[in-house]
Amino acid sequence: MYAPSKDILTTGAGIEQAQLIDNHGRKITYLRLAITDRCNLRCSYCMPEQGVEPVAHGETLSYEELERLARLFLEMGITKIRVTGGEPFVRRGCMDFLERLKYDLGVKHLVVTTNGVETARHLKRLKALPISGINLSLDTLDRERFRTITRRDRLADVLNTLYGALELGIKVKVNSVVSEETSDAEILQLGQLAEVHRLSLRFIEKMPFSGEKMVEARVDLGLAQRLAKLFPGLVERQADNGSTAKEFMVKGYRGSLGIIEGSSRKFCSTCNRVRITPQGMLKVCLYDNGVLDLKELIRGEISDEGLLERIRECLNKRFADGHQTESANGRAEQPSMASIGG
Ligand code: SAM
Ligand code: SF4
After folding, report:
1. Where are the domains of the chain?
2. Which residues, 6+ apart, have CB-to-CB distance to 232 below 8 Å?
3. Local structure of residue 324 (DSSP, 8 states)
4. For 22, which of 88, 141, 225, 318 could close a Cys bridge (C-beta 3.0–4.6 Å)?
């Protein structure tokens, strides 16, 4: 099991000292690890048809390097780790890695984000961990639309994962990206999942991370108003602290609905997360270009104390929100979400 370092065990003040807190007083408790940029789908809002230029294997953090970083972040008060990608399950050894995070490092809340294409065969091991939940990306229940959006004909595999997970009692959040092409009928059809099953269905504003050239400012899709119109009797409920989603209950539904207004950046004031990309860049905001090359540092044999200091320095220079970060990092191309992890 994970053994906290001595400075965490000493006193209350010690714990406070070990906590990662940014220059705006936001406590960092959530780490997102993108373990690969490779994927078996080609969602049009995430990457170009030909995919992204893959990161060379040697440039991707090894599982040992990822574990060292995870251990360090746990010592700094992280309580939740999300393993994501690209598609995490296309990287060989992903399931073993999840088991080491849980059994050896003792991650309290271990979660995974997956497109569900290859996930069904791992469900029993995920349940046994136990995984705290899976986020499953599913934008439509229509096979043709699925093929258009993802450029692959794999809806049946994703549904297999969805129903398999529900059957095993794994907590499921379905993430659906809403774009200009998403119809009301499609939203209503997805809504039936939350009506019939105890799951959380979250509609996500499409964000500028397509791996393509920058285009004009986003179109406001007015998600909250749209849901209110489509699901009469929608009642907002208190979301978990630090959650990026607004959550709603609908009378008679077993599950809940939600919206994630990532493009509008309405949740930055409570942001509790940092990210590590497949090539080991630390991101302290979704909209930065990576603020610290952790791979270079750990391959240069830096001590844990040295790493910790460098990470703290970055968190002391964090922008207040994603708009400020974005304007400080002007860019001509949108990065692909597959190289960030969502
Ligand atoms: N491949 C896995 C998946 O799709 O679940 C994990 C990685 S994916 C990059 C993580 C999340 O980012 C998914 O829920 C996906 O829908 C979302 N995403 C990707 N591109 C996006 C974009 N341009 N805007 C909003 N969400 C996006
Ligand atoms: Fe792959 Fe996920 Fe990006 Fe779709 S959103 S292309 S599944 S990484």
Report:
1. 5-340
2. none
3. H
4. 318
Q: Which has the closest alpha carbon to 5: 294, 301, 312, 304?
A: 304
Closest to 116 (Cα-Cα) out of 47, 43, 192:
43
Atom of ligand 2 nearest to the CA of 85: 8
- Beta carbon of 116 within 6 Å of any ligand 2 atom: no
**What spacing in Å lies between the alpha carbon of 337 and ligand 1's midpoint?**
6
pLDDT in tens, the chain (342 residues): 333 443 443 333 444 457 999 999 999 999 999 999 999 999 999 999 998 888 999 999 999 999 999 999 999 999 999 999 999 999 999 999 999 999 999 999 999 999 999 999 999 999 999 999 999 999 999 999 999 999 999 999 999 999 999 999 999 999 999 999 999 999 999 999 999 999 999 999 998 887 876 655 455 568 889 999 999 989 998 777 667 889 999 999 999 999 998 666 668 889 999 999 999 999 999 999 999 999 999 999 899 999 999 999 999 999 999 889 988 887 667 788 888 878
Helices (H), 174-287: 184-196, 223-230
Mutate to test the pocket of ligand 1, among 137, 152, 244 (most ligand atoms within 8 A of CB): 137
pLDDT digits (tens, 9 = 90+) for 295-309: 999 999 899 999 999
- Ligand 2 atom closest to Cα of residue 337: 3
> pTM value?
0.92
3-class secondary-structure state, position 37: coil
Say which ligand is closest to the CA of 47: 2
Give me 1's structure tokens. Answer: 């099991």
Ligand 1 environment, Cβ below 6 A: 39, 45-46, 84-87, 113-115, 137, 175, 177, 204, 206-207, 209-210, 262, 337-338, 341-342
Q: Which atom from ligand 1 is nearest to the alpha carbon of 176?
A: 16
- 5-340 CATH pick, 3.40.630.10, 1.10.3110.10, 3.20.20.70, 3.30.750.200: 3.20.20.70
